Amino acid sequence: MKNHITLGEYIIENQKDFQYSSGEFSRLISSIKLAAKVVNHEVNKAGLVDILGDHGETNIQGEKQQKLDVYANEIFLQTLINREIVCGVASEEEDDFVIIEGKNKSHDNKYVVLIDPLDGSSNIDVNVSVGTIFSIYRRITPLGTPVKIEDFLQPGNMQVAAGYVVYGTSTMLVYTTGNGVQGFTLNPAIGVFYLSHPNMKFPENGNIYSINEGYYIHFPQGVKDYLKYCQEEEEDRPYKARYIGSLVSDFHRNMIKGGIYIYPTSSKAPQGKLRLLYECNPMAYLAEQAGGEAIDGYRRILEIKPTELHQRVPIFVGSKNMVNKAKEFMVQYPEDANY
Ligand code: P6P
User: Fold this and answer.
1) Ranges under pLDDT 70 in the chain
2) How far is residue 68's CA from residue 95's CA, in Å, rounded to a whole number?
3) Per the CATH hierarchy, to which homologous superfamily does domain 7-197 belong?
4) I want to staple 202 with a disulfide (CB 3.0 to 4.6 A). Which of 114, 117, 256, 292 is the partner?
5) Which fold has domain 208-336?
6) How many CB atoms lie within 10 A of CB 234?
7) Which ligand 1 atom is nearest residue 244's CA?
8) Where are the domains positioned within the chain?
9) pLDDT (tens digit per residue) in 188-215
10) What does pTM read for this prediction?
11) Residue 315 CA to ligand 1 centre (angstroms)
12) Dist. CA 117 → ligand 1 center (Å)
């Protein structure tokens, strides 16, 4: 692609932006880049080989593991281990966090990665976009010791980097290290990511709302009131309903066009469905870095103190003015703030 720099060139040019850098981020993000290319290759040909369908097991979430889920998890884990800069990984597909030892078993690696290797995997069999979501922290326990749970249970405002890969009509890697959001598109012919979307920004306003309205009767009253607001016949409404069933794809579209994605609590999902550590926190960090907002209906996602590896929280994420309007409805019912 003419005059677009590659992801590798971008990282080198901006290495100074990554705190604690000594080339570590380059190696960390390039391991994610490599894993994304390998997973992309499999996702794009899933229909052609016997890699579709159930893996025959369920993960800690009680969800049937699609073969590609398991494959993606193995690829990201192995690639991160091989680069020897990560001391631990937590994954949606792993019951507990994985302690990673360097060759000399020194545990001197500084970063932990939390990952949803293949989000939206129920869409794989029907050829709809899926994604990988990752979140990176600097460990807080002493170097040289095995990583501990507290290294993973840090609030989202301590993330040093976060991003996603969307395996869609084109494959994109979108990430932030706290200096805005950069989007890179893969040229599959040569396996290179090019900077196609520099400094991505959520439009402050939008007219797209993404939520599974099939659960409407189970939603809290504040969500029902907001949905009615979205559907009213007014100068700027009704808004358009767009829900792919794949967080990364809905988020990515809403960031480009303006919109809000909501996965609230409900009587069917009292804590919501999405996981705080490897879905909500990374998407919230990206949203805020792109000028958007991310709340649980009442408070910033990034300020929630995690208590468990796989805990779920409700999320309202996207264009700032849409999230704030939704919050106006939610705060009318403070009793729903305790989920
Ligand atoms: P529902 C996929 O399983 C996921 O985690 C998100 O990617 C997606 O937005 C949501 O769950 C879909 O959940 O309950 O609407 O099918």
Assistant:
1) 1-3, 17-22, 46-54, 63-66, 102-106
2) 18
3) Fructose-1,6-Bisphosphatase, subunit A, domain 1 (3.30.540.10)
4) 292
5) D-Maltodextrin-Binding Protein; domain 2 (3.40.190)
6) 9
7) 9
8) 7-197, 208-336
9) 999 999 999 999 999 999 999 999 999 9
10) 0.94
11) 12
12) 14
